[in-house]
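Dear Dr. H.,

I hope your travels went smoothly. While you were away I took the liberty of generating a structure for the chain from your last submission, since the lab meeting agenda had it listed for discussion. I wanted you to have the full record in hand beforehand rather than looking at slides cold. The sequence, exactly as received, is reproduced here:
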Amino acid sequence: MPATPRFSPRTLGIGAAVVTVLVWTAFIVIARASAGRSLTPFDLALARICGASLVLVPWGAWMVMKDLRQKDGSTASSLFGLSPLSLRVTAIAGIFGGVAYAALAYSGFFFAPAGHASVLMPGSLPLWTTLLAALVLRDRITPGRAFGLALIVAGDLVVGGRSLLHAFEGGEVWKGDLLFMSAAFCWACYSVVARRHGLDAVRATIAITVFALLAYVPVYGLLVAGGAVVSRIGSAPWGEVAFQMLFQGVGSVVISGITFTKMIQYFGPVRSTMITALVPGLSAFGAVIWLGEPLYWNLVAGLLLVTAGILFGVQKQAGARPAVMPAVPATALGRRDA
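The corresponding predicted structure, in token form, is as follows:
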């Protein structure tokens, strides 16, 4: 019987990067289209978490039971046996990659236009990740990487400069911009945590979803019941709720969560977020095609700058090896935390 073909780490890394960029691009375009529809930002966060939980919570419970049956002491679980990671790692990853990112990102759409999000979330991500990786992982910022970052930032500014120039003219737009950048900071924290602890892609995505389900949903329910938060879940068309659960939950969390972590394992957090810097330009072109937004010269120029920045930023140093991480058992994670 012929052996099952196995993909190389390079093929898996590139494939994960492509899927991640496509899903993130779709996220921006759909967010633009959904900003004026029935659901509130907090409803969208709920749909994201619940949609992902339908897939990942049973998966996590099965994974924990499987680990317990093996009884080899190499794994740990937490949160009633639903998370396949230790409580400490689950909480750290869940706070940044689950609850905080979703709450901040969707809240930003309440104050600022979605066009700001397409620039400020993926556009500021390489900067946050570079700084965090330098501080936490002791990564060195090479001149080539610094120049690549400069080109990426310039491209993002060219794409979104027209809207950003009006961000602080008054009103509450600046709050949305701050929330978008804070969401990017939280996702950068999650990417560095995943690299620091060698998190397995599937286990990490399950863990952050379980934590978000148990932390966000009860608080959301209490705030809605107390009148502090307005919810339109009950009055929204069921098709819209189902679509958001499918895309925001299964697509943005399950699929892109796993592929993003896989991408980090091969490229490392800094180069991974440089690759995702393609998202502002691609989402802008997606808005032209799907939403009928006008195509300006700055969109083309910005995408060229971002692409050039990636070519500089992701170049390997002589003799450098890809940042491939083996999956680390949960008990080992606890030791590496110290």
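Two observations you may find useful: The two ends are 47 Å apart (CA to CA). DSSP finds twelve helices and no strands in the chain.

With kind regards,
E. W.
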